[in-house]
């Protein structure tokens, strides 16, 4: 039986007890109906899984004792950074969730001329916290022990200005080169996927000026929540660890 994995944002040490996050505690007690003495797995993003056992479980507190630790080696050798035009609500959540499951290394949400979502101030901070919680939950489910980074949403020119090295691909249904024909990108690449309205000509000029090459997926135009996931799967199959 697969044990429940729980993210804990704190150092984990064998032999020590740790208080579990409130949200995880509620899930263990009310949904899974676990009891003191039951086993679970903790992780904090350091590349290890920590076998633990619940010691205290109440409405106010759940604690677990770390019993052992093991290193995980399930990260893709291909580090993909996804520059994603910010999509609306559940679409963005879906993109973050599935891309995390497929092994994406980092996310750079970008606002562009055709973005339907505009984030600033307090709203931007709340959305970033939500996006990171979505990624953590996807790591819990998929067994990843390294948590992909999620940057705050930035204007496209600023987002791409922070990139260094690596092969860079821009999804474009009219591109001459197919994604299946790109050269070996080494150990990392950057993939840029537009928002619901796609990249504008000015956005494309920014990306091309930053070294992005246009590639196509196939003969059909895919939605933003489909295109990036399909491209990631294609890249991971050719150069990563899918297959």
Structural summary, described in words:
31% of the residues lie in helices and 26% in strands. It has 243 residues and is an alpha/beta fold. Strand 6, helix 2 and strand 7 form a beta-alpha-beta unit. Helix 2 (89-101) packs parallel to helix 3 (121-142) and helix 2 (89-101) runs parallel beside helix 6 (224-239). It is elongated and about 60 Å long.
Number of strands: 12
> Which class do the helix and strand fractions yield?
alpha/beta
Question: Helix coverage percent of residues?
Answer: 25-40%
User: How many discrete structural domains?
Assistant: 2
Write down the CATH topology of the largest domain: Alpha/beta knot
CATH homologous superfamily heading of the largest domain: SPOUT methyltransferase, trefoil knot domain
Radius of gyration: 20 Å
Major sheet summary line: 7 strands, parallel
| CATH level-two architecture of the largest domain | 3-Layer(aba) Sandwich
Q: Which term fits the overall shape?
A: elongated
Percent of residues in β-strands: 25-35%
Q: List low-confidence stretches.
A: none
Q: How many angstroms does the end-to-end distance come to?
A: 25 Å
């Amino acid at each position: 039986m697969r044990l429940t994995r729980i993210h804990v944002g704190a150092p984990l040490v064998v032999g020590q007890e740790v208080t579990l996050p409130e949200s995880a505690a509620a899930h263990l007690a009310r949904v899974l109906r676990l009891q003191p003495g039951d086993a679970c797995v903790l992780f904090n993003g350091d590349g290890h899984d920590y076998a633990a056992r619940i010691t205290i479980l109440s409405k106010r507190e759940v604690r677990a004792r770390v019993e052992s630790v093991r290193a995980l080696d399930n990260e893709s050798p291909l580090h993909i950074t996804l520059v994603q035009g910010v999509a609306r609500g559940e679409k963005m959540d879906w993109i973050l969730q599935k891309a995390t499951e497929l092994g994406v290394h980092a996310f750079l949400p970008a606002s562009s001329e055709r973005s339907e979502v505009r984030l600033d101030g307090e709203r931007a901070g709340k959305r970033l916290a939500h996006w990171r919680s979505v990624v953590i939950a996807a790591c819990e489910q998929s067994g990843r022990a390294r948590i992909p980074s999620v940057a705050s949403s930035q204007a496209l020119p600023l987002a791409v200005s922070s990139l260094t090295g690596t092969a860079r691909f821009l999804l474009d249904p009219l591109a001459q080169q197919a994604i299946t024909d790109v050269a070996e990108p080494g150990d990392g690449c950057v993939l840029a996927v537009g928002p619901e309205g796609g990249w504008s000509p000015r956005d494309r000029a920014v990306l091309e000026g930053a070294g992005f090459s246009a590639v196509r997926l196939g003969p059909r135009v895919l939605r933003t929540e489909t295109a990036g996931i399909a491209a990631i799967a294609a890249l991971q199959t050719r150069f990563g660890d899918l297959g």
